[in-house]
Every structure is written in structure tokens, then in C-alpha cells.
Amino acid sequence: MTHVPTSLITEIHAGNCVAFVGAGFSATVIPPWGKLLSELARSSTTDIQNHVTSQVRKGSAHALDEAAQVLQDHLGEDTFLDLLASLLTKHDQRPMSQRLAWLRGIPFRSILTTNFDPLLAGSTAGPDAYRRVLRPSGYRWWDPRYWGDAQGAVILKLHGDVEKREIVLTRRDYRRQLYSDPAYITFLRTMIATTTVLYMGFSFEDAYLNELRSEILALLDQGDDSTPVAYAIVNDVPLDTQKHFRKHEGIEILSYDTQGGKDFSGFDDYLGAIYEATNPLVRFGRLLEKRRILWVDPHPENNGAAFDHLKAAAEAAQRKTEPLVTVASAQDGVAALESASNQGEPFDLAITHWGDGAAQTPDGASCPAAVGLLTAMRSRDLRCPVIVFAGPDNADERKFTALELGALAYCFSFGRLYRTVEDALSPANETG
Description:
By secondary structure, the protein is an alpha/beta fold. 47% of the residues lie in helices and 14% in strands. The chain is built from 18 helices and 16 strands.
């Protein structure tokens, strides 16, 4: 079974992990750069073809950059980009569908990629994109963007997008971006220094990025026993090399065996395991496998998003019995709680809207649905944790009332609700 470090899962769950995606991520459908350059060279003279072949054989990043520069100078920038775009878009992307679904379903703070192929759609480097990544709008693991077919984390294409005819590939392109764009350098420094990075499909052959990481490591004074500042999924890394990266680079290597370059499924094993451990739909699905939730809401249309998320998680759990039961009134909620308890299948959690004037006290006066439910539960000794979910209006007063009547929590944001639900249903907090 593939082991994912708990520290990495914690960083992802906290919204503090950035995915750094390199060319190896899409290698199953996009040819490596050396092969692409060789194909581009077919439109050139014999001398150019021979030179490119020689550089490709060397295989270093420096040699490939030089080959790309020679080709661009010979063909002209427009022709070079046209030919490259046609090569990158002609390959069948369907074999990557599962890998992409996993990537987009992991609640990364953002996804950075040096790939400029169309496989990952995102924004190109620039002030607007930097702002979206560095100052996210509060998105965390529980946000709707990570559920189902949503779009996932913000993607920033550091080396451009071939479809937008803006790429960084040649030596001249790279030099211009690194040394003529201080915002780009500042952005990379900030991301590496302030977040935990998970490298995927990244070879660590980029001399500048290696130097930048070393600079940040010295700044952080990383010790041997410190939590890693980064993780990397890499194939066939010897144990001694793994130890070196952990001790001197602050990177924990998640290595897998390719059986001599014949089997790269280990990458998908790691990515799938990270998805299973962090995706909110899967997380809640596991929590609901043996638990039942009662949802009390006189106006369910007001909280449709929250309910739909829990419903999707319940469906993902593939329960034979209904784990999520809804009622429209406090009276029906009390009846449901009593019936479930009498049948020996009590609810593990109840969620109720505040619901002004939707219930009655024992003396017949109108009261909020939450107050009616909690009051009746107390009088009938119905034991079930209750979360009150409502808007921010009069939150302090309502929270005081709810907690005084025995509520577990008062929540007025999706994030707080989902976190409270997870805490309430986690195995360590099971009710007897």
C-alpha cells in the first residue's frame, strides 16, 4: 500500500500546499522536450537537424535550451510557435483524464506548472495571476471547487501557454524572464518560502530553481529533524539519495520503482492516495459510511449548497441505508430523533437552521426552529449533537442562546460547518 506522509496530508488540509507540476506529469501523452525538438527540426536544414540531434543526445536542460534557441532563430518565432502548437495539440489527452481528475480534486492552495501545453488550462504569469495565488479568497479543502466536477485550485502557467503564443522555452526566453522580471523572481521566492511545495514530474535539473531553493533553505535554517519544506514524487531514487535530499534540501522524496523504466504506475498510486486522503467528497464519504445525519430546515433553499455537498458525500459513501435525512420543522425533527432512537439506529448528528418563528415553545409562543428543537430535545432527554447553521445576523446573541440550550456549535460559514461536522463525526469523537 502506498504511504503518504501524514505531514503532507496535514499541509494540504490546512490549505498551505502548492503543487509544482513539471513535464513528467504529462509524459504519457506529451512527448519529452527532446523528442519535440527533434520533430521540429525536421522542417529545418540538415545542418540544423544535426545540431539539434547532438544537443538532444546530451540531454541536459542547458543543451535543450540551446537547441530550442537555434530552432527558433532558424524558423522564425511565428513558424516555431505554430509548429510547436500543432505538435502539442495533436496527442490524445484521454489517457490523462484520471490523473487530471485527481490533481484537480486535491485541495491545493494553487497549482504551478512550467508546462505550456494545453493539458492544464490556467493563467499565465503576471500581476493578476500572482495576486490570485498569493491572496486566495479563503479557499480551503472544504470549498466547492474541489467537489465533483468543479475546477479545482488556481493554475498558474509559469512558462506561458502555447495556445496564447506566450511561452518560455529558449535560452533567451528563460534569461529574459529570470533577470528582466523582478516580479517573477519575487513571486517564486515567496511561494517556496511560505508554502509547502509538492513537486510532480519535476527533474530538479533547473539550475536556477535549485539555487533559489537552496537560498530559501538557508533562510529558513532547515535542520535535520525539521518538517520537510517540500515533497517530490520521483521514480527510482536510491535510499541514500533520498536521505541526502531530506537532510540537505529539505525535500522528502516519495519514490516508486519503475522496474527498469517499464512501469510508471507508481506515480498514479501516489497521486491517487493523496486524493483519497484529502479530497473533501471522499473524506466526508468515509465519515458517513456508518453514521446518520438529521437535517432540520424550514427553508432548505437557503442552505442548498451546504446540503448538496453533504448529500454528494453520502452518495459517494454508497450506503444501502439513507445517511442523510431531512425534515422541514423542529417538531418533525424531534419525532425523527425519537423514532430513530426507539429503533436502535440513533442519529449521530443533527444540523438545524435557526429558522426565526418556525417553531413553538411548550406554552405555545413562537420561537426559532433551532430553539424549538433544542428545547424539546432537552425536555425529552434526546441525546444527539446539534449544530446550528445560520447567517451572520445577530450571530453572537444566537450563538449564546444555542450553546446555552446544549448545541454543539453555531456556524455561519460553510468552512466552519464542514470542519465542525468532520470533528463531530470523526472516530475519536463518536457518541455512545
